[in-house]
Amino acid sequence: xxxVKVKFNRPSKRKYAIEIIISLFSLYSFKYFIKLIAYxxxxxxxxxxxxxxxxGSKIHPTVVFRxxxxxxxxxxxxxxxxxxxxxxxxxxQIIIGDYVQTGPGVMMFAFNHSIDDLDVPSIxxxxxxxxIIIEDDxxxxxxxxxxxxxxxxxxxxxxxxxxxxxxxEPYSIYGGVPSKKIRSRIKE
Length: 188
Fold this sequence. Notes:
By secondary structure, this protein is an alpha/beta fold. It has helices at residues 13-24, 27-50, and strands at 52-53, 58-59, 64-66, 71-73, 78-79, 84-86, 94-96, 101-102, 107-109, 111-113, 127-129, 132-134, 139-140, 145-146, 151-152, 157-158, 163-164, 172-175, 180-184.
């Protein structure tokens, strides 16, 4: 298909205001509002209540905890805004040591979808659970993803935007997709 140049005539502010008022009183709007309250309650309130959070740790109010009963955070940690921590579906845990900090948008999933059976759509298949262990004094950069079955060693740094699919050596800097060792933090 070729691109075609078109002129966009913006609706008036009055028309936008009328559309907003009509939508506020619609059944769809009411249904969406109820779903939003339920989502907020399950992921922010119940998840946080079930998670074990150590003394002095700061958890931003926008952090999502799913399966919070399988999430343990040590003392003096900083879990930044818009992080998603999701424990396994059955046994997979997220265990975070002391003095760990995450940048914004970090995601940790202690499970993954199975794709083993070609006769069953992947959305209907079971899951694989695996613990995520983050040892003390780790810094995970913004928008990084940590997947099930990974241990991040003590004193390590994960560069922003990395996808951690394998264990990380202690006192190392890892980055990339998938993450690879960039260098050691130990001076020789």
